[in-house]
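Students often ask what a holo structure prediction actually looks like on paper. The answer is less mysterious than it sounds. You provide the chain, you provide the ligand, and the output is a string of discrete structure tokens encoding the 3D arrangement of the protein together with nicotinamide-adenine-dinucleotide.
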Amino acid sequence: MSLIRRLAVITGGGSGIGRATCQIMAREGASVAVVDVDESAAKETAELCKQSCPKPDEAQFHSYSVSVANSKAVNDMMKEVKGQFSQPLSIVVNGAGIIRDKMLWKMTEEHFEEVIDVNLKGTFLVSQAAVKQMMQDGCKNGSIVNISSISAKHGNIGQSNYSASKGGVISMTKTFALELASHGIRCNAILPGFIKTPMTGKVPSEILDKIIEMVPIGRIANPEEVGEVITFLASDKASYITGTTIEITGGLWM
Ligand code: NAD
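The corresponding structure tokens follow.
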């Protein structure tokens, strides 16, 4: 078990990649704070974590209903986490994300701002609150994993808001890595391609079929295949990796 006595805050933990990551980290011995705007989904994930955890007496699982775009709610949540868990915080996964796809000429200012607020500002707010906590605790093996997207590198039709938000996440990751390395905190980003989650469930099946034809591995991924990479980056097995990006795309748009 690679994450014994570690505490992870995982946003977007109520669904898809975030939920799979919570369960995999629980399997690896971590305690998990499941953060999601969807309260019942976050609670359900915390229950699933208990089932995945091989030593339930040694790990804790709690859920928090918070929007990552709200700075007060994020800071309050981080204080609550500090009070509820016995382990100090050392892992953050910024997985909360939304899409509001529209062609440029149809996209409203609201669509643009909503996506930037959750995907980019949310990553900033959660990381900032967590890093302050980790520094106070004297954390020496911190790891932040930000979920970007292959859309950041390649662009994607209908996603000028989303690809910009995820491009910002990559730039911010590199700056976090520079600022935090001397404080014992690494920061990396992953760029998933097409993963089977409720988010891609919104893509019309004929479009998804065309995308799958372009994927060298010939299928879309399961969220667990992303969660395993996130868990590796969070663990001490990745102790010399910071400021980088890993594409998890089955070879798409490499
Ligand atoms: P998902 O829709 O299954 O899960 C996203 C979760 O984020 C949901 O539980 C949702 O309630 C939560 N969320 C949304 N807004 C929030 C907010 N303001 N505060 C807190 N939680 C909020 O999606 P997913 O596919 O698992 O996506 C997870 C991450 O991976 C996202 O950042 C997404 O952009 C990224 N991503 C996904 C894919 C893919 O193919 N599924 C590809 C590339 C990147």
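The chain has a mean pLDDT of 97.
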